[in-house]
Structure formats: structure tokens, C-alpha cells
């Protein structure tokens, strides 16, 4: 992947998406870089090690990098990552961070929870910009359901995304519902539907949404999570911690 590939892909996007890196530069003084994931990136970000694209925001080193594999770039993942960047830096939305001392598996789980919550906002906008992207997300969540058959929390999050962000995918929604019914005698489906209703009625207030999420997490998992956001002041980007989840 080279600069020409990025330039060509950027030029094909709607103008408001093309402008995001420059808006970020004006707000933070940081030039957004585009790179192909390497071993160091995967070690540093275990939660994103298997993905074809991701945004790495590093206030300590005043660095913002959009990581894209050639396959990710070809499939249009650039739109997705630009929208993540916009919400993180330009909109400064609340998010959950893992405690820096948390075990790797907790950091990964925190990343996936936050990522799925953001998908509730990003996927509809992404598909509006490029309707072909919905097919990619159908495949992503089809695979995710297959891997989550015995993982209740993952199924809860998939239920949220499928119903709120991909409501036309009725077959996937039905498959997820069937899996949620597979934990008798517990009413896991009823809990998932209650979660969906509470989260959807809280949107777009991310703080209320995170409070809903907090109520269903095991204390030993929740204790590793913090609420915060990225803020920029005096030309310097920082991660502001607002307390425990």
C-alpha cells in the first residue's frame, strides 16, 4: 500500500469524509498518517491484531495513524476508519478505555465492547456513504455469530448492532435470536431485548448508553474499565479520564 493508493481512495470519497484528516490536524496539530499494520502495531494493540483496518490514537506521542491492509483499503474500510476518527477526535465522544494495567484479554474485550457500541452510530452513516459496505458487514457479523454461539455477552452486542445498525438483515437477526434462545432455563433473549430497548432509547447520549452497558457487566470485568474521551487544548491531544465505568 502506498501514498498513491490512499490518495486515489480518498479522492473517491464524499467531500465531507475527505476533509476529516485536515479537520483533525486543525484541531490537534497532528498530521494523520496512513500505514500498513506491522508486527509492532499488533503487539501494541492486541485487540486490533486480527483486523484489516484500525485507528491508533496515541496522545503520549502526539500521533494518529489509520492502519489499513491492502485488502482493507480495497474493500472500502477507509470510510469506516475515518468515521471512527471523526467521532473520537472531532466530536470527542465518550468511550470506554481499559485500565492500562489490565490483562491483555480484558483490554481486547474492552476494545470490542467499545467498537460495537460505536458501530451503532458508524455503520448507518458508512452505508449511507457507500451502500456496498453493507455486504461487507453482513459477512463480518455472519462470522461473528458463528464464533459467539456460547458467548452471551458477545451475542448481546451482536443483537444490538444487527437490530439498530443493520435492521434490514432479517436473516442474521433471526439467527442471532435463535442463538440467544439456546441457554435454557435462562431468559437470555429477554435480557438481550431489554438491553436493546434501553440502549436504543438512550441514543445518541453515549453516557446513558454506557450506563446501560455497565449494568449488565460482571463486576470483575467492569472494574477494569474507565470512561473517558480525547480532548485537544493548546495544540495538544490528551486522553481525559472521567472515572470508572
Question: Keywords, please?
Answer:
alpha+beta, single chain, 2 domains, 245 residues
What's the SSE blueprint?
Elements: H1 3-11, H2 15-18, H3 20-28, E1 33-35, H4 39-44, E2 53-58, E3 63-68, H5 70-74, H6 77-90, E4 95-98, H7 104-129, H8 133-147, H9 152-164, H10 170-180, H11 188-202, H12 206-216, H13 219-222, E5 225-233, E6 236-244
Parallel strand pairs: 1-3
Antiparallel strand pairs: 2-3, 4-5, 5-6
Helix pairs in contact: 3-6, 6-7, 7-9, 8-10, 9-10, 9-11, 11-12
Q: Could you please describe the fold and organization of this structure?
A:
- The protein has 245 residues and is α+β, with helices and mostly antiparallel strands.
- The protein folds into two domains: 1-91, no CATH class; 94-245, no CATH class.
- 58% of the residues lie in helices and 15% in strands.
- It has helices spanning 3-11, 15-18, 20-28, 39-44, 70-74, 77-90, 104-129, 133-147, 152-164, 170-180, 188-202, 206-216, 219-222; strands spanning 33-35, 53-58, 63-68, 95-98, 225-233, 236-244.
- Strands 1-3-2 form a three-stranded mixed β-sheet.
- Strand 2 and strand 3 (63-68) form a beta hairpin.
- Helix 3 packs parallel to helix 6 (77-90) and helix 6 (77-90) packs across helix 7 (104-129).
- The model has no long low-confidence stretch (mean pLDDT 91).
Total count of helical runs of at least 4 residues: 13
Helix-strand topology string: HHHEHEEHHEHHHHHHHEE
Strand fraction equals: 15-25%
Task: Using the CA coordinates, give the radius of gyration.
Answer: 18 Å
Give the N-terminus to C-terminus distance in angstroms.
39 Å
Low-confidence stretches: none
Class of secondary structure makeup: alpha+beta
Strand order of the largest sheet: 1-3-2
Bulk shape: globular
Amino acid at each position: 500500500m502506498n501514498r498513491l493508493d490512499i490518495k486515489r481512495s480518498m479522492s473517491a470519497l464524499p467531500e465531507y469524509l475527505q476533509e476529516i484528516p485536515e479537520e483533525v490536524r486543525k484541531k490537534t496539530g497532528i498530521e494523520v498518517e496512513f500505514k500498513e499494520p506491522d508486527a509492532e502495531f499488533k503487539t501494541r494493540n492486541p485487540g486490533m491484531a486480527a483486523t484489516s483496518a484500525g485507528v491508533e490514537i496515541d496522545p503520549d506521542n502526539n500521533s494518529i495513524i489509520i492502519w489499513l491492509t491492502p485488502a482493507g483499503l480495497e474493500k472500502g474500510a477507509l470510510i469506516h476508519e475515518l468515521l471512527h476518527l471523526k467521532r473520537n477526535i472531532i466530536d470527542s465522544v465518550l468511550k470506554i478505555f481499559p485500565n492500562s494495567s489490565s490483562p491483555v484479554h480484558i483490554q481486547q474485550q474492552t476494545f470490542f465492547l467499545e467498537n460495537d457500541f460505536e458501530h451503532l452510530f458508524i455503520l448507518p452513516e458508512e452505508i449511507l456513504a457507500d451502500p456496498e459496505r453493507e455486504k461487507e458487514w453482513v459477512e463480518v457479523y455472519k462470522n461473528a455469530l458463528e464464533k459467539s454461539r456460547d458467548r452471551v455477552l458477545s451475542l448481546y452486542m451482536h443483537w444490538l448492532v444487527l437490530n439498530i445498525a443493520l435492521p434490514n438483515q432479517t436473516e442474521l437477526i433471526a439467527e442471532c435470536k435463535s442463538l440467544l434462545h439456546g441457554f435454557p432455563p435462562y431468559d437470555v433473549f429477554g435480557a438481550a431485548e431489554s438491553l436493546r430497548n434501553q440502549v436504543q432509547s438512550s441514543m445518541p447520549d453515549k453516557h446513558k448508553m454506557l450506563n446501560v452497558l455497565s449494568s449488565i457487566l460482571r463486576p470483575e470485568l467492569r472494574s477494569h474499565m474507565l470512561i473517558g474521551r480525547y480532548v485537544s487544548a493548546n495544540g495538544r491531544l490528551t486522553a481525559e479520564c472521567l472515572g470508572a465505568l
